[in-house]
Automatic annotation (TrEMBL):
Membrane topology annotation: Multi-pass membrane protein
Protein task: Has a role in transport between endoplasmic reticulum and Golgi.
Entry's transmembrane regions: 180-196, 208-233, 245-265, 271-290, 319-337
The keyword Protein transport is annotated on this UniProt entry: yes
A single cellular component GO annotation: Golgi membrane
Name this protein carries in UniProt: Protein YIF1
Keyword Transmembrane helix: yes
Keywords in alphabetical order: Endoplasmic reticulum, Golgi apparatus, Membrane, Protein transport, Transmembrane, Transmembrane helix, Transport
UniProt cross-references to Pfam families, sorted A to Z: YIF1
Cellular localization per UniProt: Endoplasmic reticulum membrane; Golgi apparatus membrane
Example GO BP: protein transport
Organism whose genome encodes this protein: Apolygus lucorum (Small green plant bug)
Family under the similarity heading: Belongs to the YIF1 family.
InterPro entries: Yif1_fam
Length: 343
């Protein structure tokens, strides 16, 4: 169709010779655009891989199709990798390392050593640990001979204590030296025998056993407190200390155990017979063992001597010695009569 020149210029058409190519029918119907097409709902996803790709590339599905993922791009593309933390070995792998294991053992030994020093420092404020170890320095031979001496003290001849360069000899080197091992084991055995006696009489209860343990310990403390107060009030100079008083007070549990066991076999008659013998044995044992500790003073060069003691001081020492020995049978009866088997 031919238009006037002014109308052709108004509509933007030129003749073919005027430098303007006439688009064909396909280009007019489907114009190409160099800009990235916009799709509804995809304005916020411009940072994903493939956002700037031209649609229609070989092997790539078009935008907006079901095969396209707006966040990770096309199928087969690698998702963006997040920052990975460095490798942390497990506990087993860490301690399998010899250097780490040695360092941990060294550090643990240092902590235990410092804790031990702290405990010893706090304990030494109230109790002398080296002195306490001295009274537990025993062996099997000493324990057997000491038990024989406590039960049968009448045939023993030499009751003097032995001394060395550091002071009194350890119990395993001196049979006459008091110890704390036998009193402690006798106290524990006393509780077991008391539970056995209550069980044979159908009276066993855990509460009764706890009361028995507390009562026995309380009487030991009361006895020691009375003895120390008496020695302090009468101003008596002795070689005894609190550990030795505790040891001599604990030897009576040997006789208590014998009395309770014999009561299971012979009932009241067996109990009182063994109690009388044990009372006489413990009195004789304490009088002979405490004589050199209470009545005499010891000098490393000259040994035991009582010449420096006055008559009045000797009487006070004798009263204290007899009070310690004579009160033992009363405590023995008080701590054992509840467990007598009546048959």
């Amino acid at each position: 169709m031919n238009y006037p020149p002014n109308q052709r210029l108004a509509y933007g058409y030129r003749e073919q010779g005027e430098g303007m190519e006439i688009p064909d029918e396909h280009e007019q119907r489907y114009p190409q655009s160099t800009s990235t097409p916009q799709y509804p709902g995809m304005q916020g996803f411009q940072d994903y891989p493939g956002a700037g790709m031209t649609p229609g590339m070989p092997g790539m599905p078009p935008y907006g199709t079901a095969q396209y993922n707006p966040r990770y791009g096309y199928p087969g593309s690698v998702p963006p990798q997040q920052n990975q933390f460095p490798f942390v070995p497990g506990t087993e792998q860490l301690f399998n390392n010899p250097m780490v294991a040695n360092a941990a053992m060294h550090y643990g030994s240092q902590i235990m050593d410092s804790g031990k020093e702290m405990v010893n420092k706090e304990l030494n404020k109230y109790v002398s640990v080296p002195l306490l170890k001295h009274y537990f320095a025993v062996d099997t031979s000493y324990v057997a001979q000491k038990l024989k001496l406590v039960v049968f003290p009448f045939s023993h001849g030499d009751w003097t204590r032995k001394f060395d360069a550091t002071g009194p000899a350890q119990p395993r080197h001196d049979l006459n030296s008091p110890d704390l091992y036998i009193p402690l084991m006798a106290y524990v055995t006393y509780l077991l025998v008391a539970g056995l006696a209550l069980g044979t009489q159908d009276r066993f209860k855990p509460d009764l056993l706890a009361i028995c343990a507390t009562q026995a310990l309380a009487w030991i403390i009361i006895e020691m407190a009375i003895q120390l107060a008496t020695i302090y009030i009468f101003n008596v100079q002795t070689n005894l200390n609190s550990f030795e008083l505790l040891a001599f007070a604990g030897y009576k549990f040997v006789g208590i155990i014998m009395a309770i066991l014999l009561s299971l076999l012979f009932h009241r008659k067996g109990y009182y017979a063994v109690l009388l013998y044990s009372s006489a044995a413990i009195i004789f044992f304490l009088v002979r063992a405490l004589k050199y500790q209470v009545m005499c003073s010891h000098d490393p060069n000259s040994g035991y001597s009582d010449a420096a003691s006055s008559i009045y001081s000797s009487k006070r020492k004798m009263y204290i010695l007899l009070s310690i020995a004579v009160t033992q049978p009363l405590f023995m009866w008080w701590l054992s009569y509840d467990f007598i088997s009546t048959g």
